[in-house]
């Protein structure tokens, strides 16, 4: 499952892509004694527009702002937002998405849909209309009806005000969302996070993921019309602090700067944890050579013996072997060059980039090989058969993705991706995604601050 939205492919245009700015690079940001990076929020001129933080909308009417009621006869989805913090926190929520015509909207406190409108072409402006939903005290749900159609939706939660911006890049009004990689984003010191969702044709899909970052703790429960439920429990309370403590310990163990994945506020308290892939965007040199020795050892091993990949498709099991400088697999139209650290962190570049013309075998082999690198199972006993080793073997040797290892250690129910192909597991394993979905949904309850209650507890 991928978290990056490729704007150009959605629009079928290059003008917007050319106008997008790349993710910012660090500008000598301060650090805490533990090695956490300090956020340095700035003004509007530091707001970045990238493929990752732009919700692209289609053209809207020329009115400065459009407020509309929902269609009177259309079924809506009831969402319950629950403040699960032990301490007294004023939690804000923001709900955004695309409507059936592709226009960007927010849900206002009075239940109407707010359609942001930019003031001038290609000029960023802050959304000033009231789009903030305030949650009540602990365990007092705020009920919000969503419209009958929402695509590319997000339900944001934050412990302080979040600022959103609107811009028209020539294709329509689009929302600039908070950025996790821009340490000068106006929201950089805020503890925030979101649930992704889409609701179309009475079918709901909602997801909690840690592929890009870990932020404010979220969990959710979907209730169907027959009373059955689906739950993604999320992370334990205060997970960001605990993850950052473990990353600081890992830094002491292997002398790699894992602690710099953590972003802290002015008080030095961590507010989010970046994935290694996102940290690479900020500082490509940080883990530049981290995987080099491991990759060379893998190439040496599979020059002398076969690597068998269970595609878990009709293609069955295929054999791969290194020849020259490439790993070649039966039924694949092209080989795999040695991956770089960037390729392994993201699983979508270099040899792990999947092209439209690739054979089904190649498309099936990519996620299984990349997952084996991320989890460092290729050199273990039995690692020549992928995926065959159980979760106890994942991240058991270094180098490995310690971010994924540590994040999974704080998941209440083991659900929620920590890298793009976290669903790759031996046959028979349970779903590891953080998804709940149904075409018979009654309501969705999202919990912020701590996991949902277990059986026998009150909501």
Automatic annotation (TrEMBL):
Keyword Transferase: no
Signal sequence residues: 1-19
Matches recorded under PANTHER family: GLUCANASE B, PTHR38165
InterPro entries assigned: Glyco_hydro_64, Glyco_hydro_64_fam, Glyco_hydro_64_N_2, Osmotin/thaumatin-like_sf
Protein name listed in UniProt: GH64 domain-containing protein
Keyword rRNA-binding part of the UniProt annotation: no
GH64 domain location: 74-435
Keyword terms of this UniProt record: Signal
């Amino acid at each position: 499952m991928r978290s990056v939205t490729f704007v150009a492919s959605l629009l079928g245009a290059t003008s917007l892509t050319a106008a997008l700015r790349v993710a910012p690079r660090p500008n000598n940001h301060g650090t805490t004694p533990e090695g956490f990076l300090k956020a340095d929020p700035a003004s509007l001129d530091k707001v970045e527009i990238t493929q990752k933080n732009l919700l692209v909308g289609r053209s809207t009417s020329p009115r400065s702002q459009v407020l509309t009621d929902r269609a009177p006869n259309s079924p809506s989805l009831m969402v319950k937002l629950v403040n699960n913090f032990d301490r007294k926190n004023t939690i804000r929520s923001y709900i955004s998405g695309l409507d059936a015509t592709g226009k960007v909207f927010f849900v206002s406190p009075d239940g109407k849909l707010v359609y942001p409108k930019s003031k001038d072409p290609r000029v960023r402006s802050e959304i000033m209309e009231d789009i903030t939903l305030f949650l009540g005290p602990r365990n007092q749900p705020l009920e919000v009806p969503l419209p009958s159609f929402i695509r590319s939706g997000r339900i944001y939660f934050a412990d302080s005000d979040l600022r959103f911006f609107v811009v028209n890049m020539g294709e329509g009004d689009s929302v600039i969302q908070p950025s996790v990689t821009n340490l000068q984003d106006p929201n950089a010191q805020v503890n925030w996070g979101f649930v992704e969702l889409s609701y179309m044709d009475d079918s709901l899909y909602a997801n909690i993921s840690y592929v890009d970052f870990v932020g404010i703790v979220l969990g959710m429960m979907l209730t169907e019309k027959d009373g059955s439920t689906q739950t993604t429990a999320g992370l334990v309370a205060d997970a960001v602090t605990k993850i950052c403590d473990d990353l600081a310990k890992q830094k002491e163990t292997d002398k790699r700067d894992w602690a710099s994945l953590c972003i802290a506020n002015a008080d030095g308290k961590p507010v989010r944890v970046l994935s290694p892939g996102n940290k690479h965007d900020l500082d490509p040199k940080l883990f530049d050579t981290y995987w080099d020795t491991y990759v060379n050892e893998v190439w040496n091993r599979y020059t002398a013996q076969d690597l068998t990949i269970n595609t878990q498709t009709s293609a069955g099991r295929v054999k791969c072997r290194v020849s020259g400088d490439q790993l070649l697999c039966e039924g694949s139209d092209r080989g795999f060059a040695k991956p770089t650290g960037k390729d392994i962190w993201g699983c979508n570049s270099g040899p792990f980039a999947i092209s439209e013309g690739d054979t089904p075998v190649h498309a099936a082999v990519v996620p299984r090989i990349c997952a084996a690198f991320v989890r460092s199972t290729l050199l273990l006993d039995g690692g020549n058969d992928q995926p065959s080793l159980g979760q106890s073997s994942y991240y058991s040797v270094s180098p490995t993705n310690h971010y994924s290892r540590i994040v999974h250690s704080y998941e209440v129910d083991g659900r929620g991706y920590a890298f793009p192909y976290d669903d790759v597991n031996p046959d028979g394993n349970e779903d590891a995604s953080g998804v709940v979905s149904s075409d018979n949904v009654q309501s969705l309850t999202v919990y912020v601050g701590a996991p949902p209650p277990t059986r026998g507890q009150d909501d």
